[in-house]
From TrEMBL, chain A:
<dbReference type="GO" id="GO:0016251">
    <property type="term" value="F:RNA polymerase II general transcription initiation factor activity"/>
</dbReference>
<comment type="similarity">
    <text>Belongs to the NC2 alpha/DRAP1 family.</text>
</comment>
<feature type="compositionally biased region" description="Pro residues">
    <location>
        <begin position="60"/>
        <end position="75"/>
    </location>
</feature>
<feature type="compositionally biased region" description="Acidic residues">
    <location>
        <begin position="111"/>
        <end position="131"/>
    </location>
</feature>
<feature type="region of interest" description="Disordered">
    <location>
        <begin position="56"/>
        <end position="80"/>
    </location>
</feature>
<comment type="function">
    <text>Part of the NCT transcriptional regulatory complex that acts as a key regulator of ergosterol biosynthesis and the azole exporter cdr1B. The NCT complex binds the promoters of genes linked to azole susceptibility, and especially represses the expression of cdr1B transporter.</text>
</comment>
<dbReference type="InterPro" id="IPR009072">
    <property type="entry name" value="Histone-fold"/>
</dbReference>
<dbReference type="Pfam" id="PF00808">
    <property type="entry name" value="CBFD_NFYB_HMF"/>
</dbReference>
<keyword id="KW-0238">DNA-binding</keyword>
UniProtKB/TrEMBL annotation, chain B:
<dbReference type="GO" id="GO:0016251">
    <property type="term" value="F:RNA polymerase II general transcription initiation factor activity"/>
</dbReference>
<dbReference type="GO" id="GO:0034605">
    <property type="term" value="P:cellular response to heat"/>
</dbReference>
<comment type="subunit">
    <text>Forms the NCT transcriptional regulatory complex with nctA and mot1.</text>
</comment>
<dbReference type="GO" id="GO:0046982">
    <property type="term" value="F:protein heterodimerization activity"/>
</dbReference>
<dbReference type="GO" id="GO:0017055">
    <property type="term" value="P:negative regulation of RNA polymerase II transcription preinitiation complex assembly"/>
</dbReference>
<dbReference type="GO" id="GO:0003713">
    <property type="term" value="F:transcription coactivator activity"/>
</dbReference>
<dbReference type="GO" id="GO:0003714">
    <property type="term" value="F:transcription corepressor activity"/>
</dbReference>
<feature type="domain" description="Transcription factor CBF/NF-Y/archaeal histone">
    <location>
        <begin position="13"/>
        <end position="79"/>
    </location>
</feature>
<dbReference type="GO" id="GO:0045944">
    <property type="term" value="P:positive regulation of transcription by RNA polymerase II"/>
</dbReference>
Amino acid sequence: MTDQDHSYRPQSPDFSTFQSPISPPPPAAAATIHHFHHLPPVYQFGNPFAHRASYDASPFFPPQYQQPPAPPTRVPQPYLHLDPDMARRSSRIAQAAEVAPLPPAKYVDPVVEEEPPEEEIEVEEEEEEEEPPKPAPPAPVEVKTKFPVARIKRIMQADEDVGKVAQVTPIAVSKALELFMISLVTKAAKEAKDRNSKRVTASHLKQAVVKDEVLDFLADIIAKVPDQPAGRKHDDDGSDQNDQPKRKRGGRRPKDDSD
Amino acid sequence: MSDREFSSNDDLSLPKATVQKIITEILPPSSGQTFSKDARDLLMECCVEFITLISSEANDISEKEAKKTIACEHVERALRDLGFGDYIPDVLAVAEEHKEQLKSREKKQSKMEQSGLSEEELLRQQQELFRSATEKYHAAPE
């Protein structure tokens, strides 16, 4: 050890002769000090443990001075001898034991959420898979899928002349349309069958329409369909290619003329 | 206005998927027949035309009766006049069912009256339910 070393060396001054205003901690206080060992140890004034004790005893800090918030690693545990759960439960039981009589109640009709009845269904329906707003009742017909009623109504009212429509009307029209479709598809399918075709084409549908007087109103739509599509991809009705002249209405075709 | 007509053109046809579904219900795969796309498109046009026909006919009928709203009976008459009389029974049945639905909806609103019990009786029942619920609650182990 040189002199230099000696000069830099921290020296603990000897304060032992000083009369400390703080009395040395009583043994009980010393015991509690161990609880604070998580604090960075600060050694001062010769007495390694005097620091905390000095706070507690200092006249500038009230004795109920609480220790600073603990570092997050240590969760302060309440040293309760009573299980808090147990306490809660017992208080609840105690409460339940003295149930106050209910105030005179009036019977309240349970409120049922109900959408207000709509006069006109004006729902904007965008996509194709939509269901009709009202689940249609099970009909004794083979078709379960229903048309969107709102759409039907819109189509009806696309006609400038058509004014107001009762709420049931689109539903009735929708049913009529369903039956109409069934008859049209069935007839077209029959035409295809008669031609040994597994594939029902637009021209088959045309044949079906042309044959039926009631379907005259479709004449304009049907007119643009060629009787025999030139380039058929599915040539599965080859047996009667030259067998499809223009059919005028009423021209009955025996079902099995190709067999 | 004409601008709108063009843009809403799509709305004025039927949803393709729905039409296709109905077609497959009429012609299930087991039938061995398939419905081509062009046939389906044509069918959709026919359907729209059918709606237009029925509604304009029903409209004429309602106007003749000096009615402002097209009602179910106008549709019924239109169907008969246009040669679709055999659809009428089913159409009326559906309309009737819808009316029933509306009625039952109204009934729901007066559930209290529907129960046929006096207010005292309902109140007693409610108290009974409260009591049993309280007992159940206390009987619960936790």
